[in-house]
Amino acid sequence: MSRFAAVAALASVSVVGLAGVASAHVTVNPGTAEQGGFTKVAFRVPNERDDAGTTKVQVDLPVDHPIAFVSVRPVPGWSVKVEKSRLKTPINVHGANLTEAVSRITWSGGKIDKGQFQEFDVSMGPLPTDVDQLAFKAEQTYEGGEVVKWDQPAEPGKEEPEHPAPVLKLAAKGSTEPARGLAAAARPVAASSADDGTARMLGGIGIAIGVLGLVVGALGLVRGRRA
């Protein structure tokens, strides 16, 4: 029975680990905002390493669809650096022509430990009206210098990439649904991603149940021989 309990505990830990790996991505929350409006989003960064903490987070804002006004909320223990880039084509916002916009935000000096996550709040707007989603390429730096890039685009009809870029879907004004086009096409991908994560978890549970069945069968065989 003690061996049975040990195997059961190990199987449970394995299942939890599989579920964690499937969901530990850098994301933007909430995932939907209104075209042309202002919004506050949180870049959620989980720590994926057991032997190192996250010490720096970098997020790039799309310069092909620049956002005129960007501000950040202070995060205790972290310093923030906001960088701007000159625009190839100035944008008109409320009657003023802007020649530069925020292109990168970097948080450093803090630490996200094993099993923890941190959220970095950013207020931005007005959001573009000619696209239905914005992708924010991100970099996560760990103690020791390892850098994980979250910059892979999700493609309609394909499985979610290993390191997807955080995506903010843009809904038409007055609507709660993502605007038609790329974001609408991406919805099946999101569902597929969720199904894939669920399938991995169920697969892990199936493996655990199979292992437990083998242990129970082996114990029964040993008892039968002793009898």
TrEMBL record:
<feature type="transmembrane region" description="Helical">
    <location>
        <begin position="201"/>
        <end position="222"/>
    </location>
</feature>
<keyword id="KW-0732">Signal</keyword>
<keyword id="KW-0472">Membrane</keyword>
<dbReference type="InterPro" id="IPR012533">
    <property type="entry name" value="YcnI-copper_dom"/>
</dbReference>
<dbReference type="Pfam" id="PF07987">
    <property type="entry name" value="DUF1775"/>
</dbReference>
<keyword id="KW-0812">Transmembrane</keyword>
<dbReference type="InterPro" id="IPR038507">
    <property type="entry name" value="YcnI-like_sf"/>
</dbReference>
<protein>
    <submittedName>
        <fullName>Uncharacterized protein YcnI</fullName>
    </submittedName>
</protein>
<feature type="signal peptide">
    <location>
        <begin position="1"/>
        <end position="24"/>
    </location>
</feature>
<keyword id="KW-1133">Transmembrane helix</keyword>
<feature type="domain" description="YncI copper-binding">
    <location>
        <begin position="25"/>
        <end position="170"/>
    </location>
</feature>
